[in-house]
Structures are given as C-alpha cells and as structure tokens.
Amino acid sequence: MPMSSMVEQSTLAVSDRIWSSVRVSKSDDGTTTVQRYDWDSNSLLQYRRFRRLLAERKRAKDFPQTPLKGCFEDLPGEIRNKIYEKVMVQEPAYIELSPKTNRVYVANTKSRYHHMKRLKRDIGPALRLMRVNKKIGGEAASVYYGSNEFRFTSVKGWYVLDTFLREIGPGNVARLRHIAAHVPWQGEVNDCPKDTLPESNAQIDHIQELISTMGMHPRKFRKSFCLSACIGRTARILEAVGALQSFRLILPDTFSIFFPLKMGVPINVAMFPRGVEITLVSLQGSFKLPPGHADQINYDAHALRLLQHQREDGVVDFARERGLKIVCMAYDNMGYYPSTDPEDCIFEDWNSS
C-alpha cells in the first residue's frame, strides 16, 4: 500500500520522529480550524516498556474539548454568590486568630495550632479563588471577609488584629463586617502566666515571634507595637473605612479588670455611617484542670468570684450606660464559643441582674 494512503487512514502522521495528531473542525461561520498535538520520540521513550500505554499515546486524540459558550463569570451574580458562600464560609462561620481557652496553667498553644490548622486545611484551599482573576478574586474576597467573623479573643488579640489589618491591606479591610476582640481595658490574666499582657520587652519579642509563625509580619519597633498603639491604630483604620457592622468586646471570666476604666469603647460609633453594633460578651467556662485534680472545685469557685467581681465593679453599668448589648456565653478548652457542652458553663446571667 502506498505511504500516502497509509497516512490518510491513520490518526497519526509520521514526520521526522514526531507523532502528530490532527483534528480539522469547522465553526458556524465556515472557518476551518486545524488542531495538532505532537508527541516527539523523547516524550514517548518512557513508555517503551509498556506496550499498552505506548499504543494509547501513539493513537491518542488529546484535543481540547469544544469550549463552552458560557463560563463561570457569565452566571448570574446571585448564583455566583451562593457558590462563594458555600466554599468560603464554613461552619462555624468565624476565623479565630488569637484563641482563649478555659484551661488553667496551660498556654493557648494547642488551641492556636488547632485553629490555624483549621484555617490552613479547611479554609485555605478555598482562598485560591481570590487568585483566579481580578473579578472573581474581588467577589470571593467580599464574601470571605464580609461573611466570616474574625476573632481575636485572647489578651494578645489586639497585637494580632493590628498586624492582620496591615497584612490584608486597605481593600480587604473595607470588606470586613464582623470583628471580635478582647476588651481593651487594663487588667490581670489569672489562669495562665504565659498569657499575661506582653508589655515587657521579652513578652513583646515573644508575641512578635508568635505572629511571625502565623505567616504575618508584625511591626519591629516596640514603641509602635505596644498595646495602646495597636488599639489606637486599629480604631483609626476601621473608622477611616466605616464599613464594620458588628464589633464584639470579649471579656473572659479569668480576666480581672483594673478599675476605674481608663478607656471606653475602642471605636467611635459615629464614624460608621451605616451603624455598628457593639456587644459586650462575657465568656464563662469552668476552669479545667487535669481529670481528678483535687483543686478543681477551688478553681471553679475562684472563677465565680472573678465573675462576681467584674459585675459588682461596674462592668454591667458601664455597658448599659453606653447602650451596649450584653451577652453571656460558655467557651471550651479549644476556644470555641458559644460552647454546646453544659459542663463548660458556670453561668451567671448578667442580663438578669
């Protein structure tokens, strides 16, 4: 049989050690398109010991499918938003970046790793949507930053929040709608020496290193990274945008406030044209020691005394005078709140007082 007829019958054309698959198609307007996919001898070399694989690749028609006339961006905005919400917002619908647990003599390291692992494993892959293109990235970012609550619950939370706002940039700060942070008042941490306010040089070095391990870049100079500087800078950034809808101040039951209070609400409500809801959250969770520890009852009683101390020293009156909503919640050993485990709750309802 002549070589020319062999070429016509085969799906492969042979020329100078190149295997070429050819597909000819015509569009609606009559334009002819020729698509070729080439296998050279080197690329097929690795399959020479596997006859079936080699034959499949020699005769492969590896052509791109006929492109669809529509794409994801052509879907209605309502449908795209539902897809974004399904992917970018996972229950529980918050991102905890500075957790606080109800464990005594135990730092929050385990809890922090737990929440960072959740962010990296469960939520991180979805964030790739922000890098698809400018349009999809902007829409996905609006849902991610606007629908999730970003929490900075521990006493170190303001240092993390200040760094977080700088990391995400002004465009994404404008998309934030819900933030929760530790109360900005001076006080004493009673449950764990490692979680005391990091105002000493050694403690500030520690918190800077801690934030660096989270993949963020804290400010290097201590004067610009003290608690008052972080609170003031955060307030100015959020007020300049004025897009926040809710700001929750978290008061753990292990935090003893130094009275009188020298600072009120950290942000100026008048700077938010659409209004922002400020809520004081009293976190209540029985101090937990290792199982069978003899001092468990004493620590539970100590926690109740701290709660009573907070309430009697005017926290409730302070909130009510400023029109703040008061919410009491239980929290657990991993820093989740509200906790659904009744054993985590030693409840004293401040709203009934």
TrEMBL record:
InterPro entries: AN11006-like (IPR038883). It comes from the Eukaryota. PANTHER family: F-BOX DOMAIN-CONTAINING PROTEIN. This is F-box domain-containing protein.
